[in-house]
Amino acid sequence: MSRLAIKICGLSTPDTVGAAMRAGATHLGFVHFPKSPRHVEADRLRALAAPVPSHVGRVAVLVDPTDETLADLSATGALTALQLHGKEIPERVAAIRQRFGIPVWKAIPVKTRADIDAAGAYAGAADFILFDAKTPEGAALPGGMGLRFDWTLLRGASLSLPWGLSGGLGIDNVAEAVRITGAPLVDVSSGVESAPGIKSVDKIMAFCNAASAC
Ligand SMILES: O=C(O)c1ccccc1NCC(=O)[C@H](O)[C@H](O)COP(=O)(O)O
């Protein structure tokens, strides 16, 4: 059985990047969305990613990014994937992948089984699907809100792309989430924070320990 992949998302300081690496995270996420308390500019992202070894994924999290924004981030040379959290349709996802040559993860907001099925439209366009909780209409952010969806919706789903689970995961529920869904990758943000946008070294360590034991 292969090891569970762990993505710690919304990192914005060198000490929490270091903690995530030491704790065994396989992927680090950097949010580039000015409305987010986790937003990092391209230069900061480059500096944060600089000490990260090549076997650890470095993922930029974006919402309906323009090509100009993508060009700025791509120019950092720091990224192994782009995670799209907006209303990007499959054609836009495919165009981004082709233009920037960086693997694309599409976040799919989930509330019902139909949302899971909607991921199929991204086969051939995205490289990876991240199932995340659907945030309420008018919410400030499309992710990073600590909301979870009904994990049993993933039972028996036939998924045509590699995928991961996100939304409301934390130290106390990650094992249950993996047991129910069989997720090969788990992604956490607010579950390892002491306040919005403030990552906790202790919580990152505890989450990675709990996930590694799955
Ligand atoms: O985290 C943000 O601030 C954010 C802003 C805009 C788009 C996406 C964002 N986060 C996406 C993530 O990858 C989170 O890790 C994911 O939604 C899970 O968050 P949480 O429920 O807080 O663990």
UniProtKB/TrEMBL annotation:
* Pathway(s): Amino-acid biosynthesis; L-tryptophan biosynthesis; L-tryptophan from chorismate: step 3/5
Keywords (alphabetical) are:
Amino-acid biosynthesis, Aromatic amino acid biosynthesis, Isomerase, Tryptophan biosynthesis
Which chemical reaction does it catalyze?
Answer: N-(5-phospho-beta-D-ribosyl)anthranilate = 1-(2-carboxyphenylamino)-1-deoxy-D-ribulose 5-phosphate
Q: Which NCBIfam families match?
A: PRK01222.1-1 (NF002295)
Similarity section: Belongs to the TrpF family.
Keyword Amino-acid biosynthesis annotated: yes
As recorded in UniProt, its EC number(s) are 5.3.1.24
The organism encoding this protein is Sphingobium fuliginis (strain ATCC 27551)
What HAMAP family does UniProt report for this protein, alphabetically? PRAI
Cross-referenced InterPro entries, in alphabetical order?
A: Aldolase_TIM (IPR013785), PRAI_dom (IPR001240), RibuloseP-bd_barrel (IPR011060), TrpF_fam (IPR044643)
Q: Name one GO molecular function term.
A: isomerase activity
Listed name of the protein: N-(5'-phosphoribosyl)anthranilate isomerase
Domain N-(5'phosphoribosyl) anthranilate isomerase (PRAI): where? 6-209
